[in-house]
UniProtKB/TrEMBL annotation:
This is Cystathionine beta-lyase. GO terms for biological process: L-cysteine catabolic process to pyruvate; transsulfuration. InterPro entries: Cys/Met-Metab_PyrdxlP-dep_enz (IPR000277), Cys_b_lyase_bac (IPR006233), Cys_met_metab_PP (IPR054542), PyrdxlP-dep_Trfase (IPR015424), PyrdxlP-dep_Trfase_major (IPR015421), PyrdxlP-dep_Trfase_small (IPR015422). Its cofactor is pyridoxal 5'-phosphate. The modification N6-(pyridoxal phosphate)lysine is found at residue 205. The keyword Lyase applies. It catalyses: L,L-cystathionine + H2O = L-homocysteine + pyruvate + NH4(+); an S-substituted L-cysteine + H2O = a thiol + pyruvate + NH4(+). Keywords: Lyase, Pyridoxal phosphate.
Amino acid sequence: MKKNTKLVAVGRKSQYTKGVVNPVVQRASTVVFDSVADMQEAISERGKRTLFYGRRGTNTHFALQDAIMELENGAGCALYPSGAAAISQALLSFLKTGDHLLMVDTAYEPTRDFCDKILSGLGITTTYYDPLVGADIESLIQDNTKVLFLESPGSITMEVQDVPSLVKVAKAKGLITMLDNTYGNGWHYRPLEHGVDISIQAATKYIVGHSDVMMGVAVANETLWPTLRENSYLLGQCTSADDAYLALRGLRTMPVRLQQHEKSALQVANWLAGHPLVDHVRHPALKSCPGHEFFKRDFSGSNGLFSVVMKQGHRKAINRFLDSLHHFKMGFSWGGFESLVTANASMAPLRSTTGWQHGPVIRLHIGLEDVEDLIADLEQALKVYQESL
């Protein structure tokens, strides 16, 4: 089957749909058994998407797991109550006191906070590395390094990593590799096909697609799946059947939505690239984005998220710009149908290794509104920005 057909069909086994189009919503805490033999069988098969206990999942969860496994081409999928939970629990599943973690310096801010505030207290050390370091990552590997964590493109500043080069070194040194694939979403990029061991997403974003569900997913290869599955269960991770249902529903239309997000974002990004106040645009599909050559080589497409680096500015100008926007709402998420904006006067506080020598950064998520309306909104807001300089 072609990709579009497959995404419509996956997770729709008759045992999940019960004769209707979508998998039924099966809510449960307790699963009951008619005999000791039935209960013993469920216990022995509990790791194989079999009804056992609510935290292990119901048929609604199993349908979503099937679909995400197909999307990411993995051996198993764990579900979490948020993207941050998926990242933190994946790390905790494979790190212990005395271990060392290599974390990309452009990581999602909550990931950085988890390393600095939680892992450090557990005796796990973190070294932040330049996202563009490539094969030179070898010089940062210590005797106790256990995990190499990637995020490509990076949060806010959008650097695209040379994943195959990094993975090659990691495998030679026996490291586990994890990648935050929320931008690539399994549709435009499949990390496991590039040698990554675990691909993680905030399904809150494009999988759900409607800004109404918090969810994270982690897909592992065959070697690491049993450990990820059991440790995530022991850490108490689970999601509701209703949220799993909404994620499945969003997944069916994700390719169509992504196509429009991509088209509109490129139009807005190219318009902004020519604006006199803009230093450069960090959209992975544009040459001005660091690591663009890796994006062009490895990804099949982009989406609605990108950042704009201004030539100059300060907090007052940024605030006036944000307050003057109409169609772009301020919000910390992305991936929904609506356009969003956030801004940082400086990226320096969020960098440990790479620093920041550029102007303010404005991050945009281009939603499904008419592009002409969005450009007009940005144009009037940029005039306010200029008046405030």
